[in-house]
Design a protein that fits this description.
globular, 6-stranded mixed sheet, 18% strand, 43% helix, alpha/beta, binds zinc ion, 10 helices
Length: 197
């Protein structure tokens, strides 16, 4: 913990070394990508992609679950997606699942979550999608990948996403990231499988 505080305390020194780059951030942001991934600490989008400040707009949720759109029930996730697509005008949305994902493991293993009512309620968002949970997969990697693709379907329920995809100005992608190797795979609708980027 101390090293994290120390690094934060001295961060201005690092910024001063890149003063020009950071000064441009004052003018605003124009990220090209909305990156949706799990809250898992082992997944670091800027590390994976090499993105600099201002280049990735991030949405992180337990299990990278994307709630289906409901106009009568706005959520932080919906607001983040809408802002990225309608205001920032991102050109791509990436939903990135990852190996060893505890949330997806809980989904497929059906463990006792009675002590975690919020987690249980959140996972029920995903459990309502049959392709995520049935048939149960003994292979967590396969389950995570199927789960990531299912989130793309949920993205399409958001009017802002559906409109821009239909207009050909927005593309959505599902990625699978291995936390222990750094390997990234992308889903290809043509072959219905994940392959190395
Ligand atoms: Zn996870």
């Amino acid at each position: 913990m101390k090293s994290l505080f120390d690094n934060a305390r001295s961060f201005t020194t690092h910024v001063a070394e890149r003063a020009e780059e950071f000064r441009t951030l004052e003018a605003g942001q124009s990220p090209e990508v909305l990156f949706i991934t799990c809250s898992d600490s082992r997944v670091v989008p800027s590390l994976i992609t090499g993105a600099r400040p201002g280049e990735l707009f991030e949405l992180r949720t337990a299990g990278n679950i994307v709630p289906e759109y409901r106009s009568d029930h706005p959520t932080g996730e919906t607001a983040t997606i809408e802002f990225a697509v309608r205001v920032l005008g991102v050109s791509d949305v990436i939903v990135c699942g990852h190996s060893h994902c505890g949330a997806v493991n809980a989904l497929v293993s059906g463990g006792d979550l009675s002590g975690l009512p919020a987690v249980q309620g959140w996972l029920e968002h995903a459990a309502s999608r049959p392709e995520t949970t049935t048939p149960p997969s003994p292979d967590l990697a396969e389950a995570v990948q199927r789960h990531a693709v299912a989130q793309l379907e949920r993205l399409y329920t958001h009017p802002c996403i559906a409109e821009r995809v239909a207009a050909g100005t927005l593309a959505v992608h599902a990625w699978y990231y291995e936390v222990h190797t750094g390997a990234v795979q992308q889903y290809g609708p043509d072959h219905a499988s994940f392959r190395p980027l």
